[in-house]
Structure formats: structure tokens, C-alpha cells
Amino acid sequence: MAEENFTKEETLAMRLRLIGQSCRLFYKEDPVKIVRARGQYLFDENGNRYLDCISNVQHVGHCHPAVTTAAAAQMDLLNVNTRFLNDKIVLYAARLGATLPDKLCVFYFVNSGSEANDLALRLAQQYTQNQDVIVLDHAYHGHLMSLIDISPYKFRKLAGQKDWVHVAPLPDTYRGMYREDHPNPGQAYADKVKDLIEEIHRKGRKISAFFAESLPSVGGQILLPQGYSSKVAEYVHSAGGVFVADEVQTGFGRVGSHFWAFQLQGENFCPDIVTMGKPMGNGHPVACVATTVEIAQAFTANGVEYFNTFGGNPVSCAIGLAVLDVIEEEDLRGNAIRVGEHLKGLLKKLQARHEVIGDVRCVGLFAGVELVTDREKRTPATNLAALVVKRLKEEDRICMSTDGPWDNILKLKPPMCFSVEDADLVVACLERILSGLWHQFTASPWTKACQLPIHFLHWEGLPRNILIMKAPKMQ
């Protein structure tokens, strides 16, 4: 039977039978079956079009013709492993190098962000001859065992924290220990890293690296406070460690004003190692580690060859070069600035009209809308966020997801061709849904009779369709 002839139900049944159930689907109660895509749009088996606010991997747009043409042409010409001399890998390394600070001039090509972060960890430990790593709370750096060990988002659900892994507070100025009213949250959060380093030293241990996403994504679409990274780098270098910037989610111009998100921290800050992945192949598996000559030399000095069968193959590099061309030729960084500012303005206006929006965080086309049931207490509105995502999909054919430690943050990381009109549509639909929910809750006769504020109501059941009332205790 041809794939095109499978019904959605048949495809789902086969997936449930053949694919591991830990590999989850979006909208698991009623998945969308996608059969083709173009630009920022997905199309299901019935020809329905969905606006994609999820796929940061398809960076320059789904199935961009310049990328697919480059892939097919190179596949038709040559694809060999990197022990053979070929132009493509060095051309691609040179193009990437032109986007980075001068000291980040040695490249290792791999196939995924997880591979890149695993290699970065090896580089740091080899260079420093130390093992210990500092990571941010709620961080996620990949699915390999070495990366689960340094990802609090994962290890807290599994075997727990290793003695060589140390967790620093997430620099979240909305609900963290230092908030928006602090005079210098960047310094304050960096000082917590300094305290952690001193604690590590008191245990007789030494650090190899501070490892962090330039903009923590799983942690909740967090924008790091100014001055944080440079101060942390100062403390880490003084302790003999290196600073690793994980750009797997945020690199390649997503923030608009800069090519790399770490550059938001100022011209004086430069990591020692940068990892990149998801967007660089526009859906093709290609990733990379960039580092300094000194760190690369230390890795070479161990006498063990580093070889990656598929990393840096000519097809992957041709695709990577095509992605860089499209970013430049279509001014996608400029688009991220223009659309991102427009989207941010719309979301801020939406926040002013809806108490349930506690915070809006947006830079370029990296945005998070934090939903709360109580603005003063900043109580996460997890169930409401899930309901909003469900209704966007069912009523408006907009694909969006949630993130953050409590899954209460509406996350927008669309393809970079996302337009002003797309932003208008998303916010208009959010306005309608939030207004309707508020009216539904506050207009209910039994709600009025009980005189309950909205935060005494929450959704339960599967699929979150039962409205539960928890009345306050009477004094």
C-alpha cells in the first residue's frame, strides 16, 4: 500500500504498533497528519493549511527550493566521508567562521545538536583535565547519556544528579530569585555561579566548564539579563574552566540583531566553545562545534583520532551553505527584527488586556508568553496553556507548543519567513480565545454566586475538559 493511501487512523495505528511510545506526538489525543510543507505552512492529508509556530528546525522555511536544489545537486555529484579531501567542508567552515568572533576558528562537524554538545563536553574536559560541569537549572542539552547527566530537565526524572554536575539558578528575572525590580540581576545571578564555584573548590573538585544555552528554551524562553554571561565567563576562567554556549536552538540569526544569541550579551563577551545544530540544515541532520586553536590542540594532543562518519559530508555542507545564502539573500535577520518587534508590541498590548498573561519575552523570532492564574503570585497556568494550544490547533489551524518547568509558556519559534500578517493572525486568535475563556468563566452563574476569583478554577481530566472548582476555606 502506498503511503499516500494510508488514512490518518491507519498511520496512527501503525505508529502505535511500530514506534516506541516514549517518542511522543504533538496533539496526542488528535494528532495532525502532515503530508507536505512549504515556507511557514504545514498541510494535512485533506489539504488543510496550518500556520507553523513550532518548527525552528526548518529555519529558512519548509522545503525551501534553494536548499532542496542544493541537496539534490550535491547528492547527484558526490557524497563521501571526510577522510577524503573535498572543497565543501572547508568552504562551509570558512563561511561559519565569518559569522563568529575571530578566536572561534576551528570546527568539528557532526550530525545533531546532541552530538555537538557531547563533543563540546569532551573538548572542555580534555582541555582542562577536569570533569565537573556547571549547568543552569531546568536546562536541556540533548538525549545522549552524557548530556542527560548535565540536563536537570531530564536527570531529575531519572537517576538524579551526578556528583560532578552542579546546578546554578536559572537567571529568570520574572519568577527567579532576582527579578525585574533588582538593580543588577545579571551581576546577582552571576555571583551565584561564583558562590557555586567556591563550594566546588571546598569539596576539593575543579570545574571543566560552564555549559548554558544562550537563551534557555526548555527553561521557559528566558532572556538572560545583561552582563550575566561576561561575568560568569570571568569567574569560570579564573577557576580554570571554559564557557560553552549552546546555540543549537537559537543560532543563525533567530534573534535578528545578531547572528548568534550569545552576542546579545555584548561585544566584550565571547564563549570558548559554541555548539550549533537544529536550524543549520533546515531539517537535514547537520551540526557543528566551533572552538579555539588552544582547545582544539589539546584535543588533538590526546593522540586519539576524532572521526565522524557522516559529519561534514559534502551533501550536509552543501545544504548548510545554501541555508547561509538564503539567510543573507532574503534578509531573514532583518525579517526577524521587523516581525519580532511587531509581534512583541502586539503581545504586550494583549498582556495589558488579559490578567492571565504574566509576562511576555521576545527577541527576534524567539518569543514566550507566560500564562498565570494570579499575577501577584505568578502562579503557573499550566492547564490553561494546554487548552489555548489545543484550541489554536482545532479552531484556527495554528500549531504552537508550550514549554517551561510548568509548561505554562506559549512558545513561538517559527520558521524565519514568518510574516507580519502571520503575527497579526496569531495574536488575534489568542485575543479571541483568551477573551472567550475569561467571559465563559466569569459569566457562569455558579461562579458569580460563589464569588470566586478565576484562580480557584482549573481544568482536569483528559483531555483537560472538566472544570474543577476549589473554593477557599471559610474562616
UniProtKB/TrEMBL annotation:
Record protein name field: 5-phosphohydroxy-L-lysine phospho-lyase
Cofactor(s) the record lists: pyridoxal 5'-phosphate
Residues forming coiled coils: none
SUPFAM superfamilies: PLP-dependent transferases
Example of a GO MF term: lyase activity
Highest taxon listed in the record's lineage: Eukaryota
Pfam families associated with the record: Aminotran_3
UniProt organism field: Oryzias latipes
PANTHER family: 5-PHOSPHOHYDROXY-L-LYSINE PHOSPHO-LYASE, PTHR45688
